[in-house]
Design a protein that fits this description.
about 240 residues
């Protein structure tokens, strides 16, 4: 399998952002509750980790975090990133399962720990590059998130290595740069709406964003291009 774009990749002008969000809305009506159950597990793990960090490093304010010089603090976040990365991959795969007209299960978030080395490496590298991007300007961090859009499903669905997945994700993103940039601007607006709702909006927003990503991935990387959620399921064959 070579590091090249699938022959059936969609030209940039054929990606209809409005229809993509409409299809994701249909999908969200089918799977939001299931995805929410998986997100609750991730939230629980995050809360347990937060309690551990606060108690271990005696954190009572944001200023305390900035003063911590203990390397074990960074190591704790490193291990958290490793553990949580297969679970986030599971959420995306649940969306992809729905897009293929199969029934997702909240237990899918535990099915991708076999990809832990690859997913953990990708998560750590993306986090590092994002932090560097934020220190420079916001735009580099935005770019990192964009070009890494397809890395996780290429690893878990197509079982590519991290490097091949990253190369293909960057190439595909550049081929459809304007449309994917627009998608992420909309995602940013949705996330702001989630915070404005004191977090309650994320119950719907996070599954919806994952559904958009899953449908986009299905359209660009899978054998049969889907234009409607209720089309026959695809085989997910990848010609590379």
């Amino acid at each position: 399998m070579e590091n090249q774009l699938p022959e059936n990749s969609v030209p940039n002008e054929t990606i209809d952002v409005r229809k993509l969000f409409e299809r994701a809305l249909v999908l969200s009506k089918q799977n939001t509750f299931t995805l929410f159950q998986g997100l609750v597990v991730i939230l629980a793990v995050t809360m347990i980790f937060s309690v551990y960090v606060v108690n271990t490093f005696n954190i009572s304010s944001i200023e305390d975090i900035q003063k911590i010089e203990d390397p074990s603090f960074s190591l704790a976040f490193f291990f958290y990133t490793l553990i949580i990365s297969p679970m986030w991959a599971g959420i995306l795969m649940m969306s992809l399962t729905s897009a293929r007209k199969l029934k997702p299960s909240p237990f899918q978030i535990f099915q991708y720990f076999k990809f832990l080395p690859a997913l953990g490496l990708v998560a750590v590298v993306i986090d590092l590059l994002t932090q560097i991007g934020l220190m420079l300007l916001v735009l580099p961090a935005f770019y990192v998130y964009m070009v890494s859009t397809f890395i996780v499903p290429l690893i878990t669905d197509k079982q590519l290595g991290p490097l091949k997945a990253a190369i293909l994700s960057v190439k595909m993103t550049h081929q459809h740069f304007n449309k994917i940039a627009l998608l992420y601007l909309i995602f940013f607006g949705l996330m702001l709406a989630g915070f404005a709702s004191l977090g309650l909006g994320f119950i719907w927003i996070l599954p919806y964003i994952h559904n958009v990503k899953a449908i986009l991935y299905q359209d660009l990387f899978c054998k049969t291009l889907t234009t409607e959620i209720n089309r026959p399921e695809t085989t997910g064959v990848f010609d590379a």
